[in-house]
Amino acid sequence: MTSNRIDYNNCIRALRLPFVMASVLPYIFGALSAYAFFSFVPFFLGLIAVASTHLSANLLNDYADSRSGLDWQDLHHYGFFGGSKLIQEHILSEKDYLYLSLSLGGVATVSVILLSLLFKSIEPVLYFILIILTGWSYSARPFQFSYRGLGEIVVFILFGPVPVMGGYYLQTQVFPDVKSFILSLPFGFFTAAVLFANEIPDYPEDIRSGKKNWVYYSGHEKAYLLYLLLMICAFISIGSCWFLHYCGSMALGCFFLIFPIMKAARILKFDYQNKIRLMTSSKITIIVHTVAGLILILDSLIDG
Q: pLDDT below 70 — which residues of the chain?
């Protein structure tokens, strides 16, 4: 460690711990969607694997964005975007982030190996290898998906189909499954919208670093339109799940979240160059994702 100022708050900040809900909630939802088959041991091991993999990817993301120079362009810590900045504040080093990332990856690996032993199948290990390598490759070389216009697609997959279908698979050992895939779509779109809202404030730094995400192609003036499109797709997905009887009427309560979304979109439209104001749109989007996830989980408990 580069400093003795490591405390609880800095640990949370380094891990970007609140964002772990983006993977944990869809995983819980996926497991509960197979409620008739629910088994606690694979659920618990899967939960450890999901959370550890996500946190490992968070840490490697900061490591990679520091190495590329991206996070050194704006040294202010905003909380929702731009990285944790603990490297830039010389509280942790790049090496610290790398070691912590690999350690959490090790925790996830142990959990997945135990799952494979429990199921007497190599499948969980094979799926896990593909998932964690994709997560690490979001920012890290050689693929750097987030720098090549593929980051949003990767996030959609890793925080939609992967945790929901993964949770379902660990309860039923069925993969692929059409129902769990369709149920995963709202989470994928909501998480992609969170990422996109967080990319808009970083637009100037991303341009200078050659990071070509979707905001690069849309321009930050028109980015709010793509944000709204992602949200519309999320609500269409929820409506489709209800129409297909994959979820109950409680899920339709998510539609009340349209009102805060409109507020966030307004900020993205008129204040796209004001990072302080954009913190509000990011916060709203994260809250919407979390509340929608909780509503869908509660619906699966009641309707399941």
A: 1-6, 304
